[in-house]
Specification:
single chain, 552 residues, alpha/beta, four-stranded antiparallel sheet, 20 helices
Length: 552
Amino acid sequence: MNFRYTRLAPLFYFSFFIPCFSFGQSALPPRPRLVVGIVVDQMRYDFLYRYADQYGPGGFRRMMEGGFNAKNTQYSYFPTVTAAGHASVYTGSVPSVNGIAGNDWFDVRRGRHVYCVEDDSVRATDGNPSAAGRMSPRNLLTTTITDQLRLATNFRSKTIGIALKDRGSILPAGHTGTAYWFDGRDGKWISSTFYMQNLPKWVADFNARNLPAQYLREGWKTLLPLEQYTQSTPDDVPWEVKMAGDKKSVFPHEMAAPVGQERYAYIAPTPHGNTLTKEFALAAIRAEYLGKGTDTDFLAVSFSSPDYVGHAFGPNSVESQDVYLRLDRDLAEMLTFLDGWVGKDNYLVFLSADHGVVDVPEFAASHRLPAGRFSTPRASGAVRAALNEAFGKGEFIRGEANYEYYLNHDLLRDKKLTVGQVYDVIRRTLLPMEGIANVINLHDFANAPLDTYHLALLRNGWNPKRSGDVMVALQPGWLSGTFPGVGTSHSTFYNYDTHVPCLWYGWRIPAGFTVAPTKVADIAPTLAAMLNVLEPNGCVGEPIQKLVENLK
């Protein structure tokens, strides 16, 4: 062996390749100083255009005209609910992987329903006894794009999640960020000991302003004269929920909430909830100096009020039109603030929604559109009676959630029954009922009596540890689980629930659009490609090709 050569070879190797790995600060890939993720709770895609002639130039229209619009963005799973939607946006994944199988689900092992962000091992910060503080992201099984950004910067980046709803702030903030949400009991923003033992001074100072009390005193009046709400039904229709203190469901809404428990929760189903969220988000940016450091920061904001309003009044109401016109102003104020805070070219904003909404069945029926309401209690009673008749008495159904039945597998083993046998009885019982489109055995996707498009959504939403055994699919336009004869909902795999906005604006974003099929799960990997970080560990989406390939 040539000993001299072998000793010199490593020196030659490193001297030759060192220049290839010597990156100066200027060679680092560019990133925006601040990313702002906006999720609007219950925003169908068509709302971008339905009220466009009344939007101002600085909000939705600014993003649509000066940014990139992925016009054909759909959810790729069932059920389309708030928790699952926020999880999908930020994990780039689906419930079958990230575990967020609904706002809640039945836990067979514990024999009870589990809320998506519940965590009895934590408490509200500052010793607050409120049960609203017993929340964390521990039920989320994967990382988020916010986690990945923190990992990529060795945790120098700041991530803050903000929403009235706990699940709307906790899931976007991931496992490594900080989340704040609103406690309707006392009208204050709170967090949990998962994140901190004490609230920062800026949060305490914001709470001391007592804006919720001011909003309650103001009530809710329309932004424009009532006759200008031409995209809505008349104000006085019988299928709308009456707000506290109202004799009829018409403007102005007095918001005469009773003094005591949950008084401030009455702010949520009004535009004041969005404005309160916007004000808190701006306070967070200022106090935490988001976008002012050497690494990219991330603010995840969810506007929850449109969901409360939509459920109570429906998407064709004056109330829904008004909440979006006012949200447009809140967005414009946020964008204008960011212009001055970090500069127009230094922040990146995306806007999407966690789900859509179906028209109120009574509204649809008034225009001869197929729709209706399905009684879940009546169906469940019929199923239990049919199973007892077929197999003898027993508790065959342990729980129900997300249009799914959770079977008692211990009882099935004792009676030597298969899931298929029980499913056959459930299907024969339910399928003849008006409003039911199909009944599916979730343990036998290969033979599911469902079209391939909707079957794929069902498979993506089914988590073997958290989903049920038999699923009921309603006809398009039908819903269940709301007040009798009033209000509406979501959570199906039809387009009115799956088709949502997907807007991009700001840092290096080209003006343009695509109508190519885009999934909500594509948002996180698109961000990962822009930020040059690893996508979340359960990601199933792909970068939006036309967007990332045409960055300025």
